[in-house]
Amino acid sequence: MKIQKSAEDYLETMLMLREQNGFIRSVDIAAHLGVTKPSVSYATKRLRESGYIETDEDGYIVLLPSGLEIAQKIYTRHKLLTEYLISLGVAEPIAREDACKIEHDLSPETFEAIRRHAERIK
């Protein structure tokens, strides 16, 4: 399944917000990503049309199984890459920012090699 980087960022943010707050609201997505509410509305419409999310009766966003799968994959990569970069001596804010840049583009093979190496050095 091929999905654009921006869609992955939205889904990852939704998962992070759900873990932090117990719910997902458009206004929180906008604040987290530093984008406008109309940008979030456009993105969520596309994600809804693609079957990744839906909106519940209270107006909260709900990750559907396909969206949750992508979000978990990207978030797992983000966390591991951040921890790995920090273990190399990169300052935490820079490590988070750099992990966000590379989490989408790593091949599964390279990510697995980094994951195995990170496990060995723990």
Key terms for this structure?
single chain; 122 residues; mainly alpha; two-stranded antiparallel sheet; 2 strands
Task: Walk me through what this model shows.
The chain starts with a helix and ends with a helix. The chain is mainly α and 122 residues long. Strands 1-2 form a two-stranded antiparallel ribbon. Strand 1 (53-55) and strand 2 form a beta hairpin. The longest helix is centred in the middle third of the chain and has 23 residues, at 65-87. It has helices spanning 5-21, 26-33, 37-49, 65-87, 92-102, 108-121; strands at residues 53-55, 61-63. The chain is 70% helix and 5% strand. Helix 1 crosses helix 2, helix 1 (5-21) crosses helix 4 (65-87) and helix 4 (65-87) crosses helix 6 (108-121). The protein has six helices and two strands, in the order αααββααα.
CA-CA gap between termini: 32 Å
Briefly note the structural class of the backbone.
Answer: mainly alpha
Give the percentage of residues in beta strands: under 5%
Q: How are the strands of the biggest sheet laid out side by side?
A: 1-2
Task: Indicate the topology.
Blueprint: H1 5-21, H2 26-33, H3 37-49, E1 53-55, E2 61-63, H4 65-87, H5 92-102, H6 108-121
Antiparallel strand pairs: 1-2
